[in-house]
Design brief:
The structure is a single chain. The protein has 621 residues and is an alpha+beta fold. The chain folds into three domains: 29-351, no CATH class; 355-467; 473-620, Immunoglobulin-like. It is built from 21 helices and 14 strands. The chain is elongated.
């Protein structure tokens, strides 16, 4: 049974390990694991480098030195820790709950969307959970069969868990309460159990004390409001995180139903096994209660911190359904099957495009095709540079502080980059709550008020906007393909650029479901135009059927420099995106340009006699 469950854990985690892009938080892992070992060890127990303990960064640094920085390699330690967590849970749990109940619990952890998500993340949660499970299991052993070797493994596991993530420290009071409960059953071994249990917890607490003191000294305990309403809201969110992390199920009272389901599992488990059920229930309620309290204190709900409650909840679910003997009882089986069903259903949402956090991978791929040597890429907020730079190999700048407010001199900061042809603003993390971020979008607003928009695309969690900071030229840029198309009104199409000539027929990552074809046109006038013109761009097959047209934008070139303002002797840049039909067949298509008269809307004929110009053909694959 154990081998099959471990195989399931591997199957769920490993094949999709690189599906997610390295995200904002994983960028922090890259950042801190670049620090010298001397710095990481010197500040292991304080908060001067990061608010999280530094053990994970030390181990990741060593691993990167061996395996490199490929996405799979970065996440492989987390996936391995996740599989080992399942194995430890089964191996240690079956000694107290029986192989059937422990197997059910291990299978729940193997399939839990909450746990799987952390096992595919280059962060410290998988590592911390693995050490936490080892600490729980060895403490369980210690309470029934006190031995020095078990006590030593327990102390090491508990300290490593605490130095991996601060929420793992909730194990201290949870295990302490379970020790008090077990002393009621210890009989003649009561004194020995008390000595080993209290001694092991005390040794672990002394080893962990430097980090706790650093938290207290720094004032990092938070100042959020603790109220009954906040407690209820956070409790409902915690229940949803544990039981239904991914699905879109929702109806009035759904959160209360999930909280009721959690309560039913706890009651059934305690009813079926008073000694072991109460032990694990104390673990769950203490860890969950303290995590809810910390969440309210820092006033920020982060689902991933509830991963430490997932293990005792899974153990209680297995115990409720099957007891220590492995015999099912309806009052435990019904809630257990509901929990298992929601977990499996939740996995079907795990690898959908909407589940990406910050999709820096596709952001970088897009910019690599669009950006020229005359452009500048600005990453904002500055912290996003670590994850973005993991994929983007070209030069970029990050001139803004992580906190942009009314006092930030946006124009002065951007001034050195305004002689670029296009300034590409890559935003991620701007909506972070104060004091971080740029929730008022001050940088974006400053650029939008002054320059035409080239394009705007929206990978998950990222906002990419191009601004034509230079749209009037003395000569045709060398990135453009020259043309000589003249119109009777003095207008001339003198060049174009198709930066992406082969695209997917349907877009999944930037602006689903339609693909956008970027087109840049360069114009001149022999004399000032007497009337405004408009430009129509279409995507057509060889039979003349239209499969796409330009996207209208209110803040494109026309809003800043309309055709009637153009001056002889200059070349003007005008950017478009052609939005394709979502059902367009894979094929080659013509990019067709027409000049429309301002009032009548009719197409002007150029000196070649046609009212259309075929720039080139692009391939939609």
């Amino acid at each position: 049974m154990g081998v099959a469950i471990i195989a399931v854990a591997c199957l769920v985690r490993l094949p999709t390990l690189t599906w997610y892009s390295v995200n904002f938080d994983e960028g922090a892992s890259l950042r801190y694991s670049n620090e010298p070992y001397s710095e990481l060890f010197a500040h292991l127990s304080d908060l001067s480098i990061d608010r999280h303990p530094l053990l994970y960064y030390i181990l990741l640094k060593a691993w990167r030195g061996i395996a490199g920085d490929a996405d799979m390699m970065l996440r492989l330690p987390s996936a391995f820790a996740g599989v080992l967590t399942v194995a430890l849970l089964y191996g240690l749990g079956r000694r107290r709950l029986g192989s059937v109940s422990a197997g059910f619990a291990a299978l729940l952890i193997a399939l839990s969307p909450l746990v799987v998500h952390q096992n595919q993340d280059a962060r410290m949660y998988a590592q911390a959970l693995m050490f936490a499970v080892l600490a729980m299991g060895t403490f369980w052993e210690l309470l029934d069969e006190p031995r020095w070797t078990v006590a030593g493994v327990f102390c090491l596991a508990l300290v490593l868990a605490g130095y991996s993530h601060v929420v793992a420290a909730t194990l201290f009071p949870a295990l302490g309460l379970s020790l008090i409960w077990h002393l009621l059953y210890a009989g003649v071994e009561r004194r020995r159990v008390a000595v080993f249990g209290i001694g092991a917890l005390s040794v672990s607490a002394v080893a962990y004390a430097p980090y706790v003191l650093s938290i207290l000294r720094s004032g990092s305990t938070g100042n959020g409001t603790i109220s009954l309403d906040a407690w209820l809201r956070t409790s409902l969110g915690a229940a949803r995180t544990l039981i239904d992390y991914q699905t879109t199920l929702s109806f009035p009272g759904y959160g209360w139903c999930l909280l009721g389901l959690l309560s039913a599992v706890v009651v059934a488990a305690v009813y079926r096994s008073r000694k072991q059920g109460v032990t694990v229930a104390l673990w769950l309620l203490t860890i969950l209660g303290l995590t809810i309290f910390v969440t309210m204190r820092i006033n920020l709900f982060q689902p991933k911190v509830f991963v430490f409650s997932a293990v005792p909840f899974a153990l209680l679910t297995g115990l409720a359904a099957l007891g220590e003997s492995g015999s099912p009882k309806w009052y435990g089986v019904v809630p257990a099957l509901a929990v298992a069903g929601l977990a499996i259903y939740g996995l079907s949402f795990q690898w959908q495009g909407s589940r990406q956090r910050e999709d820096f991978r596709h952001t970088a791929q897009y910019l690599e095709e669009r950006v020229t040597q005359r452009d500048t890429v600005v990453v904002h907020v500055s912290w996003a540079r670590f994850a973005f730079g993991h994929y983007y190999d070209e030069d970029f700048v990050h001139p803004f502080p992580n906190n942009v407010d009314a006092r930030t001199p946006v124009g002065d900061i951007l001034q050195p980059y305004l002689d670029s042809d296009v300034l590409w603003l890559v935003q991620a993390g701007v909506d972070l709550s104060r004091p971080a971020g740029d929730p008022d979008r001050k940088v974006q607003r400053w650029l939008t008020e002054r320059f035409p928009v080239v394009t705007a695309v929206f990978p998950s969690g990222v906002d990419v906007r191009g601004y034509a900071t230079r749209y009037r030229f003395d000569a045709l840029p060398d990135t453009a393909t020259p043309l000589e198309i003249a119109y009777p009104n003095g207008l001339k199409l003198v060049g174009y650029r198709l930066p992406m000539r082969s695209l997917p027929s349907r877009d999944r990552w930037l602006h689903p479901p339609s693909t956008w074809v970027p087109v840049t046109l360069y114009w001149s006038v022999a004399q000032s135009l007497s009337a405004d013109v408009d430009i129509a761009i279409s995507l057509e097959d060889e039979q003349g059927n239209v499969w796409g047209g330009e996207l209208p934008r209110t803040n494109d070139l026309r809003a800043f420099y309309a055709p009637r303002q153009w001056q002889p002797g200059e070349i003007v840049r005008w950017d478009f995106d052609v939005n394709t039909n979502a059902h367009i067949p894979t094929d080659k298509y013509k990019v067709v340009v027409r000049v429309l008269q301002g009032e009548s809307g009719g197409a002007l004929r150029h000196t070649g006699g046609e009212d259309w110009v075929v720039l080139d053909r692009i391939c939609l694959r």
